[in-house]
Amino acid sequence: MPVTILGIESSCDETSAAIMVDGVLRANVIAGQAVHEQYGGVVPELASRAHQANIVPVVEVALKKAGITLRDISAIAFTQGPGLLGALMVGTAYAKGLSLALGVPLIAVHHMQAHILAHFIEEPRPAFPFLCLTVSGGHTQIVQVKSPSDMHILGQTIDDAAGEAFDKCAKMLGLPYPGGPFIDSNAQLGDATKFQFGEPKIPGLDFSFSGFKTSVLYFLQAEMRKDPTFIERNVHDLSAAIQHGIVEILLRKLKRASQETGIKTIAIAGGVSANSGLRKQLQALGEKQGWSVHIPDFSYCTDNAAMIAMTGHFKYAAGDFVDLSVVPLARIPEL
User: Fold this and answer.
1) CATH number given to 4-117+300-318
2) Percent of the chain whose predicted confidence (pLDDT) is above 90
3) According to the model, what pLDDT value does residue 33 have?
4) For domain 127-296, which CATH number applies: 2.40.30.110, 3.40.50.720, 3.30.420.40, 1.10.260.40?
5) CA pair distance 87, 97, nearest whole angstrom
6) Virtual torsion, Cα 115, 121, 125, 126, nearest 10 deg
7) Which residues pair with 109 in a beta bridge?
């Protein structure tokens, strides 16, 4: 009998369902939530309500695309956390109810572990051990990955995440939410060397982006006092400089992690791994360092259920199941 995993993702503002059969992805359906754009950020209450409206049709579409029925499902994998608690509750409750109704095992998935294991959805897959730079709106980590179940955080942000830095800097420039993609598109038209911003000196492999954001803010405030049109006239160059500064911070730490561990198989994951500047600069650095670089397809960078199903596939093989007493967790400290 084939092992068929239904993956469910509801950690933030995407409701997603995926079907994986014997480790092969059959369907990956995502419903976004445009309602948050007018607020300049994700509103947790609105997110959980949208998940309630979206989760049943999203699963139905995934099943139809995969050409299977609920009776074919071997197990249900869902995001337990970290994420918005109300949003996680919707996915968790749906997964538990369906597990009980179908009599199939339930698999709890760590969201950040799933981002890393997204690399195993398609070829080429990284060989163990490898380092993964995991960057998103809520997390920035360098993780040493020894196996699908053995991961160790070598360094992480002590304050703001890289994705948050992108979005907050974009807001300073008057760009729409979510700002990261707008920084990226503007940066491709700008000169990254025209402006330079401060970089916090954090020892070891940890990150800090609060000081970088403050540097950008003070610079813009000073320039706007002299010329109120400064941002408008320089938005492309400012975007390029901001993107370059954040990417440099990320890659400098990643290079150090590779040197300290001796690991030369390098991967990136998370929403910020879709950033074109990060992808290009990582590839260039990889060539200089002799790394084997793994960059996920754009569709597996942002939150999606395919990565949840992939993690569920590994956990199913290991017999790593949970019972109906499982609860969602907004914060999960370790991978």
Assistant:
1) 3.30.420.40
2) 85
3) 63
4) 3.30.420.40
5) 16
6) 20
7) 79
